[in-house]
TrEMBL record:
Transmembrane segments annotated in the record for this chain: none
Required cofactor names: a divalent metal cation
Gene source species: Papilio xuthus
Keywords, ordered alphabetically: Cytoplasm, Hydrolase, Metal-binding, Nuclease, Nucleus
Annotated Gene Ontology cellular component terms: cytoplasm; nucleus
Domain DDE Tnp4 per the UniProt entry, residue ranges: 156-305
Annotated localization: Cytoplasm; Nucleus
A GO MF label: nuclease activity
Protein's name in the database: Putative nuclease HARBI1
Family classification: Belongs to the HARBI1 family.
Function statement: Transposase-derived protein that may have nuclease activity. Does not have transposase activity.
Database matches in Pfam families: DDE_Tnp_4
């Protein structure tokens, strides 16, 4: 019998003495085993993963959490993980009331912070670019098969994760151009709808181009550590390693370049829709501290890649989120003599002249 099963059995045993004046000390925590309570489909709908994946893949990430004992009845890692996954699947403490097993909200909040921080520290293990040349060439081939855009190793986009006002004199920097408070999260997505890179530390008002220009992914591309190009929209400045569409294409090759880029880059929007659909906490607005929001974002990115790795990419039992694809044209730069424009035109001349 596992520690978790022993714990559940012990709590169920003590419940029999709630209304009796003698016997073991009375505990009011009501633990029923969710792994046996729900069918696989119900469990997946509530926690966004199957029981097998939770037990065999995600739970080992919490090994550093103290093992339960009967003294004081600390929370088992299984319970802590399921409470956290349920929060990710709802984004609301109120909607979780039937799932927190009579644990007070203060304890639930502490559990979410602890588990989110722990999973977030493992993000770089799951969210990373392939480093092997053969693997990177396979990525390029998969992107090319979408709509014949060559040399692509990723698609970049930023997405706003809604938060409550953090308060204080600097709170306005978190208010984005849509008028709500948020974290502006930069993502780079691979051809299998996985995250290759994620940056979640900038307030909502930060321009996408600024985030990219101060990111490690730009440095790795510019130094040649990563060989290839990534595709972005016009919120980003074009360069020889980040390609964006022509705002006013004036030739058939430029038009074909734009069409191929648009079709290939749909992947990042699709990925973000799946990500936010799996974890609605990312779209409803989290009423928790900013530093915890960042941990939740990173944890959800790692969990998304785990889902992709086990073939659980886009389940049909929830709706994908709609992703805002508006471009802030006040930040675009389409000067024909700019370095980015020249690099983009050279790319067209090399790969799209046959159209």
């Amino acid at each position: 019998m596992s520690d978790f099963e022993q714990f559940v059995e012990f709590v169920q045993y003590t419940k029999r003495f709630r209304n009796v004046g003698v016997g073991p000390r009375r505990y009011l925590r009501d633990y029923s085993d969710p792994f046996s309570k729900y069918s696989v489909e119900e469990f997946h709908a509530r926690y966004r993963f199957t029981p097998d994946v939770v037990k065999s893949v995600i739970l080992p990430m919490l090994d550093s959490i103290r093992k339960p004992s009967k003294r004081g009845l600390p929370f088992p890692p299984e319970i802590m993980l399921l409470i956290t996954l349920r929060y990710y699947a709802t984004g609301s403490f109120q909607k979780m009331q039937k799932d927190v097993m009579n644990i007070c909200q203060q304890s639930v909040s502490r559990i979410i912070v602890q588990v989110s921080n722990l999973i977030a520290t493992k993000m770089k293990k799951y969210v990373k670019f392939p480093t092997d040349t053969e693997e990177l060439n396979m990525v390029k081939q998969k992107f090319y098969e979408i709509n014949h855009f060559p040399e692509v190793i990723g698609c970049v986009d930023c997405t706003q994760i809604k938060i409550r006002s953090p308060g204080g004199e600097t709170s306005d920097v978190y208010k984005n151009r849509k008028g709500f408070y948020s974290i502006n999260v930069q993502t780079v997505v691979g051809p299998n709808l996985e995250f290759f890179n994620l940056v979640a530390r900038w307030p909502g008002s930060t321009p996408d181009s600024f985030i990219y220009n101060n990111s490690s992914i730009k440095q790795r591309l510019d130094t040649g550590e990563l060989e290839g190009v990534i595709l972005g929209d016009s919120d980003f400045a074009a360069s020889n390693t980040l390609l964006t569409p022509f705002l006013s294409p004036n030739s058939i090759p430029q038009e074909q370049y734009n069409k191929s880029l648009y079709e290939t880059r749909k992947l990042v929007e699709h990925c973000l829709g799946i990500w936010k659909g799996r974890f609605p906490c990312l779209q409803v607005g989290m009423c928790i501290k900013v530093e915890t929001v960042v941990a939740v974002i990173c944890a959800c990115a790692a969990l998304h890649n785990i889902a992709v790795s086990v073939g659980d990419v886009a389940p049909t039992n929830w709706e994908m989120a709609e992703i805002d694809t508006d471009v802030d044209f006040t930040t675009t730069n389409e000067h024909p003599n700019s370095e980015g424009f020249v690099a983009r035109q050279l790319f067209v001349d090399r790969y799209f002249q046959n159209y």
